Each structure stands twice: as C-alpha cells, then as structure tokens.
Automatic annotation (TrEMBL):
Source species of the chain: Branchiostoma californiense
PANTHER family, alphabetized: NEUROENDOCRINE CONVERTASE 1 (PTHR42884:SF14), PROPROTEIN CONVERTASE SUBTILISIN/KEXIN-RELATED (PTHR42884)
Protein name: Subtilisin-related protease SPC3
Renumbered residue ranges of the record's region Disordered: 103-126, 180-214, 626-654
Transmembrane segments: none
Keywords of this entry: Calcium, Cleavage on pair of basic residues, Glycoprotein, Hydrolase, Protease, Serine protease, Signal, Zymogen
Active site residues according to the UniProt entry: 174, 215, 389
UniProt-listed Pfam families: P_proprotein (PF01483), Peptidase_S8 (PF00082), S8_pro-domain (PF16470)
Length: 774
C-alpha cells in the first residue's frame, strides 16, 4: 500500500554503576559495540577512562554535557547478545556515573504502506508558475463555490501579509535531504544539517535502486520549496531556511537520536520528525535516557531559552489497530503531535487515535484522493507523498510562519496557539468530537482540529507569553497494588486541590498518568481518565495485535484533552480488561497523576473560545468568486463533557430530514436535495434521479441543461448534501472534489473523464460515492 519501513535501531539495555539494567519496553534489537557513558570532569577525563578500559572515546554525545560515546574494538558491531561483562566493568568504576550499551529496535518512516499586525488590501488571486502549484489543493482554496467545504490550511492571507518564513530555520530529522535539489538549494542551510549516520556534515541521502531514502527530501520540500522558480511546487514557508539531519539510514542508537534532537539548538528553530517506533499495534516504546535529556535541554535552552519546537507525526498504524498513546515520542509533552485528515475531510485508513494528538494537517486518504506534492530524489518532483509523514512537515511550515510573525513565542506559546486556533468545523462530520470542560472541541483522531495558518499568525502578532509552567504530582499515599483479571475493572480516585502553594496549577495544559502494570496480555487493557469537569479521555484503547506479557513499566500516558480546564476535584482512573481471554491476570502496581499547567489562567482564555464557520473566509480565494466572512458566533457555554467516542455532531439517520439542513442555496439545488432526500427515504428501487426534477434535460436545446458536464450546480449540490449528512452509523463515502468534474481536476488516481461524460453516469457516480450503489 505504498508503506515502507526503515528497519533501524534504537534501544538501551544496560547496567548502571549499581548493576541495574535499563531495559527497553519491547523486543530487543541488535547490540552494537558502543556504550554511552556519563562522566564528570571534561573530555580529557573521559579520554583517560576510555583508555583505562580499552575503549575509544568517540566524543561528546550531541549537546549533552558529560555524556560520551565509547567504542570497543574487540566487540562485534552487531550482535544478538549484549556484552554485559563490559557494561558491568564500566558500571563498577566509581568515576563513571552511568553507562548503557547501545542496542536497537525498529524505527518507521511515517508514510503509509502539517510585532505589529501587517495587513494587506491585496485580494487578487495568488498564482505561481511552479508546475505543481495547481496540485497543492491544501495550500490554496480551489473551490468553485462558497457552498462547498473549504479544504486548505488558509495560508494565502498570511503570505499576502508578507509572512513567508523569513528568518526561521527548520531541520528535518530523517534519512537526509537532497541539498542540491533545484527547488531546495536556494533555501538550504548547512548550519542546520549534519549526517549522524556517517558522522560528517553532508546530509545528502544514500542513493539506491528502490529510492528508499526519498523520505527526508519529500518532507523538506513541503516546508521550504522555493516559490516562482518553475520547479516542483511552493513550500508552505517558502522563504524559510531548511536543513537535513541524516539519522535514519543506519544504526540508530539512543546516542544518535539525542544528537539529532539536540543538534544546533541555538540555530534551528523547528525540528520536523516523521518517524517513530513500529506502528504494528504491539510495540510500546519511547525515547530513552539520552533522547529524553535532549528533548528537555531543547525546550529549556533552545532558541535562546524560548525552547526548540518539535513537530512530530502521530503514526500510521490505524489498520493494525495501533494507538499512538503507546508511542513515547508523539505522546511527549515536548512534541507537537500532528495527525492527518484526508482530502475528503475524514480520518484516513492509517490514522491512529490517541489522547496526545494536538492538531491535524492534510495528507493522503483513499485511493481516489489527491496526495501531497513535494520534491523528490534525483532533482525530480512528486505528487504522491503520503501518511502522517506528509502532515507533520505541513505543520512545521505553519509554525514557521507563526514564528516569523512573532519570534518571541516560546515552545509552550506555540502549543497554546495551536489549541486556540485549530479548526473543528471542517472535520466536524467525523465521530468522536466532544467539548471539554473549558468548552474546547477535541477529538482523539484530530486533536483540536485542522491547523489554520492565518488565525495562528494573527493571534501570534499580539500574543502575550503564557505564565511559567508548573507541575503538580498527585499520588495515593501508601498505594496498595490492585489485582485485575478477565472482564474486570479497577477504579482509582485521586483528589487534588491543584497543589495549592508552590507548584499550584490553576489552568491545565498536559495531563499525564504514569503507571506500572504487570499483565498477561497487554493489548486487552483499556484505560480511561475522567477529570473533575467530567471530561472522559481514553488514554489507552485495546490493541488486538499486542499479546505482550511485559505490561507497562513506569509508562507516562499523556492527554491534551483537558487543556484550559481547572484541575481541582476528583480525578477517576478506570483500568479494565476488555477481552474474553479467561486466563488474563495481572496487577496495577503504581499510579501517579501529573498535572502540567499554569498558576493562573492565561489572559487569552478569559473570554472563552469563539468558533466561527471555517467555510466562509475572506482573502484567500484563488478563483474570482466572493466569500464573505461570517460574523463570529457567540461564545458557547461549556457543554457537559462526554466520552471521547460518544458524540457526533448532528443526528438522525443517514439521508433523513433531521440530518439535512437546507440553507440559502439556489432554487434548483434545493429541488435537487429535496428530490434526492425523498427518494432515499422511500428506498424506492426504481428511484432514478436522472428523471427527477432538475436532472431532467430540457427539451429546449438553448436552455440551461442542468446535467451538462460543464455545469457546476449538480456537483455543488451533491457536495452540499454530503456535507450536511452526519450520522454515527450510516455509510459515508464523501468525495470532496473542490473543482468541477473536468480534465482540469480529475487526475490519476481519480476516475477518468470518460466516467463523467454522460449525465446518467455522473448521477450513478454520485450514488456510488454515497454508498447506495455498488
């Protein structure tokens, strides 16, 4: 299915100075002949200790002071067994604080099988001579009518303000980038680039017959392809500087990851990463000691203390029943976890659900959907970049625009902006949306919604930095382990006043539950956290592929769903076995609730979030039709929170009168909708829209023939009908084609033009898309 894996390595199995093993969560990979060590006293002391023990000191690990990488020439560079005797000898040396032999696990690239306010009165269409610009449907509004759902990320108004990523540096952590590609070379930044696989300063990818190492070049192009140079397409931040850190095309250890994550943190503003542990539905892995330290140092010291920003792809394991709550990279509080929406405005087949997802950008979907356009290897272009791999770089580009608008944004400011400006409306037809206790719409598949570049930039221009972060840990005194078996549940209640005093949290950001659970079949567990405001969040859903007996060892589940809520009151954690495996058994050994937030409510939250109709926007039309901006809706009172999978906007059966609302649309479209609705409700086998009202061609050859292939109204009417139909159980096959059905739009893999030539075939095609005909 176009999905490919880079079977690389990262893990630690080591003995510390006390002989304690640091084990990874799941299957071991191949041990290397390198050891990460922590030594105080500087490089000379590290050199001396390496010599004493028969090692070569390869130098400091990234930007982590007092951490060095030793290599032993007599140990195989690849082995199934760990050299524990060597680890123990190093650990027994009192001059060495910590040691870990570098080992490995699979890592997957996540393509499947994104001052003063500057105003512009320029509303002229923005066009570019780059050949793939017309294929970049997610960057410019290609609708032919404002009655159709709006697709793009709303970047044209930002560009019209003169904000294009100037002065911002983005590094892509991947398999390298083609630095001499004609659409990247002008924006290439050697100071944001390095090769940690071969230890040199050239990130050029390794070329081989299958072009496996195209991933990083594709991600880089989405962000910073140059504009108007007649090459490929237009980057979302086309004047940003772009670098590549080659780290996925070789043996990737904890040291390699730490070096990459912490590379040149005073120069690089944003790191884009579209990879992670295997999305196989059975792996539980996250960053180890060194990579965790690199994340923490980045947000603490990067960008002059404002913090490095990490845009991370949420994962492509949906078809495997995977859950990104088991991915410690995308569920880190330090990363911006980005999910995907298809061109149809739905969750793609590879999409994963998790409570840590912050927002969504576009990517590929079903076979007929257009994909993402970008640069490709060998100085070529592509219009088939896919997966959450393609969504995260689009998000990195949007964040680059926000940073140009306000370079003083901290890493936490950026996350607050994302939560407050992402759009629920364009994805609202999907199940799973609910309002949290602060009145914010959120979804385990999409986070807080689709990124809106203009809204984020406009808010950034006048942004006031949020208060310093505080952390409140809530424990149960003398917690007694609790047994759990097949079909059983454990309910744990934790009361808190938000740590009133020194670590007081008044307004929530991230919420973590750190727990240790021993269990006979890990994939049968489900964990739900309910806040004092009534927000129920699934921290872990069952995973049918996960048969591991390793359970969770001090694993930090993370949720963004309580953003803006108050933490005071009773939190309820429900841990349950959802299987029919009678032999299941285990024990919950420990639970800690960790509340991250601010000691007072940030100023911007005081009026509550006001949601507007994303479909009615101004200033970013690419065709000559008007689009008036809707008046802001009044702030809604926070609705009672519901379980994250229980709510879908709208009601009534698919195609019923309760689910279709006719607004101000032309008379013929209204007649079309009514006839279609009546026919579907009657389930008449002989119902034929071709002979129904507006579909009936006029006898007058000179009259307006409604089903003419060049007449857009039936297409718009169909799209309007589909957008209004919302059902939690009905069959939905949306086809968000935002141009007319002509050769200008329909390109592979869409249906051929021949399928749309005749009026009857077009109607049949509508019905097929809605699932009424096969």
């Amino acid at each position: 299915m176009g999905r490919f894996y880079a079977w690389l390595v990262l893990a630690i199995v080591a003995f510390s100075s006390h002989g304690r093993a640091e084990d990874g969560e799941d299957q071991p990979g191949h041990f290397t002949n390198t050891w990460a060590v922590e030594i105080y006293g500087g490089p000379d002391r590290a050199d001396l200790l390496a010599l004493d023990h028969g090692y070569e000191n390869l130098g400091q690990i990234g930007n982590l002071e007092d951490h060095y990488l030793f290599r032993h020439k007599d140990v195989p560079h690849r082995s199934r067994r760990g050299a524990h005797q060597h680890t123990k000898r190093l650990g027994d040396d009192e001059r060495i604080q910590w040691v870990a032999q570098q080992v490995g696990r699979a890592r997957s690239k996540r393509g499947p099988m994104g001052q003063q306010r500057r105003q512009s009165d320029d509303t002229r269409p923005m066009t570019f001579r780059d050949p793939y610009w017309e294929k970049q449907w997610y960057l410019h509004d290609t609708r032919t009518s404002t009655n159709l759902p709006k697709l793009d990320l709303h970047v044209l108004p930002v560009w019209r303000k003169g904000i294009t990523g100037k002065g911002i540096v983005v590094a892509v952590l991947d398999d390298g980038i083609e630095k001499d590609h004609p659409d990247l070379v002008d924006n290439y930044d050697p100071d944001a680039s390095y090769d940690f696989n071969d230890n040199d300063d050239d990130p050029q990818p390794r070329y081989e017959e299958t072009n496996e190492n195209k991933h990083g070049t594709r991600c880089a192009g989405e962000i910073a392809m140059a504009a108007n140079n007649s090459e490929c397409g237009v980057g979302i931040a086309f004047n940003a500087r772009i670098g590549g850190v080659r780290m996925l095309d070789g043996v990737v250890t904890d040291a390699v990851e730490a070096s990459s994550i912490g590379f040149n943190i005073q120069h690089v503003d944003i790191y884009s990463a579209s990879w992670g542990p295997n999305d196989d539905g059975k792996t539980v892995e996250g960053p180890e000691k060194l990579a965790r330290a690199a994340f923490e140092k980045g947000v603490r010291e990067g960008r002059g203390g404002k913090g490095s920003i990490f845009a991370w792809a949420s994962g492509n394991g949906g078809s495997n029943g995977d859950n990104c709550d088991c991915d410690g990279y995308t569920s880190s509080i330090y990363t911006v976890s980005i999910s995907s929406a298809s061109q149809q405005g739905g969750s793609p087949w590879y999409g994963e659900k998790c409570a840590s997802t912050l927002a969504t950008a576009y990517s590929s979907g079903e076979y007929k959907d257009q994909k993402i356009s970008s640069t490709d290897l060998h100085h070529e272009c592509t219009d088939s970049h896919t997966g959450t791999s393609a969504a995260a770089p689009l998000a990195a580009g949007v964040l680059a625009l926000a940073l140009e608008a306000n370079p003083n944004l901290t890493w936490r400011d950026v996350q607050h902006l994302i939560v407050w400006t992402s759009e629920y409306d364009p994805l609202s037809s999907n199940p799973g949306w609910f309002q949290n206790g602060a009145g914010l719409w959120v979804n385990s598949r999409f986070g807080y919604g689709l990124l809106n570049a203009e809204a984020m930039v406009d808010m950034a221009l006048t942004w006031k930095t949020v208060p310093e972060k505080t952390k409140c840990e809530v424990r149960i005194e003398n917690f007694q382990p609790r047994d759990l078996g097949n079909g059983e549940e454990i309910i744990i209640e934790l009361e808190t006043d938000g740590c009133r005093g020194q670590n007081h949290v008044e307004a929530l950001e991230h919420v973590q539950v750190k727990t240790t659970i021993d269990y006979s079949r890990r994939g049968d567990l489900r964990i739900v956290l309910t806040s004092p405001s009534g927000t129920s969040t699934t921290l872990l859903d069952t995973r049918r592929q996960d048969k591991s007996q390793m359970g969770f060892q001090d694993w930090p589940f993370m949720s963004t769903h309580n953003w803006g809520e108050k933490p005071q009151g009773k939190w309820t954690l429900t841990i349950e076995d959802k299987s029919d495996h009678a032999e299941n058994n285990g024990v919950v050994k420990d639970v800690v609730l960790i509340l991250h937030g601010t000691p007072e409510q940030p100023a911007y939250q005081s009026g509550g979030r006001v949601y507007t109709d994303y479909n009615r926007v101004q200033g970013d039309r690419n065709v000559e039709i008007s689009a008036a901006k809707a008046a802001p809706a009044p702030a809604a009172d926070a609705a009672p929170a519901r379980g994250s999978e229980e709510r879908i906007p709208g009601s009534g059966p698919f195609g019923s009168a309760a689910s279709v609302v006719i607004e101000e649309i032309p008379e013929k479209e209204t007649e079309f909708l009514v006839n279609w609705q009546d026919g579907m409700n009657r389930y008449e086998t002989d119902f034929n829209p071709v002979n129904s009202g507006p579909f009936e061609p006029s006898a007058d050859a000179g009259s307006d023939v409604y089903m003419d292939a060049e007449d857009l109204r039936p297409w718009e009417a169909f799209k309007y009908l589909q957008r209004q139909m919302k059902s939690p159980s009905g069959q939905r096959h949306p086809a968000h084609a935002y141009n007319k059905p002509s050769s200008q739009y329909i390109r592979d893999p869409w249906v051929s033009q021949n399928a749309l030539d005749k009026e009857a075939n077009l109607v049949k095609y509508y019905l097929q898309l809605l699932g009424y005909e096969s």
